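Box 3.1 A note on notation
Throughout this textbook, protein chains are presented in two layers. The first layer is the amino acid sequence; the second is a token string describing backbone geometry. Keep the layers aligned when reading.
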Amino acid sequence: MKVDLSLAADRYAQRRERVFLLLAGLFLGTLGIINILGISRFIDLSFTFADFNIPMIIPIGVLPYPLTFLCTDIISEFYGKQRANGVVWVGLIVNLWILLIIWIAGYLPPHVPLDPVTSLPDIAHRDYAFYRIRNFTTGCVIGSMLAYLAAQLLDVHLFHFWKKVTNGKHLWLRNNASTLVSQLVDTTIVILATYYFSDGLPLTSESSVFSQIITLILCCYTFKAICALLDTIPFYLAVFGLCRYFGTNIKAITEKPLSFHSVSAAS
């Protein structure tokens, strides 16, 4: 009987480790995609409602970004604040690594003549796309690092604040209250940093720069907020499904975060 319990504990410990690696991998992989392709293209999802034109212009990097908050919320729920913050800091290292590789690649031979103003080669040059992405990535990573640390660490902090206040109840509250606030911070910093560091925003001369920046912030945040509200359903499904998969319950993980060690190994 004791051997059976030990084997079951080992099996659950392996499951916890596999799920953590999956969530961390999704988080870091999505983060890499966002920083490389983030503002390389803006898509127009504008629509008309009751004779009003509702602008919805967002960079493609915004599309997968809500997944990062869902991943950190699930990690926070099961593995605790320390592990969630650890993944966030690893993400910062990934940001810097991407930026380093892209800049080193730009200086390796053969030499490419760059315009001193735009830092780009001739548009017909085969490496034009690379240097265009490099310029975007630089601004995106600088803005992302500022926004990323502020927003993700705030998200983890607020998630655990609401978890403590509600005594582990009301999953929807801590999921949405933490994500909605942190994504507003993230969106504002990213848009402003992109404007100042990479000149990658699709601005025109038809209206003031300020009004266009505010519009972009509102567009991106509205999209993220809608996704945050919609991800309440997958968050609930993930929490209850993983509780079953891990052989635990909401009350248990509220009192003590999961570890990767089995009961037998810990003893």
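The beta strands are 42-44, 47-49, 52-54, 57-59. Residues 263-267 have pLDDT under 50 and may be disordered.
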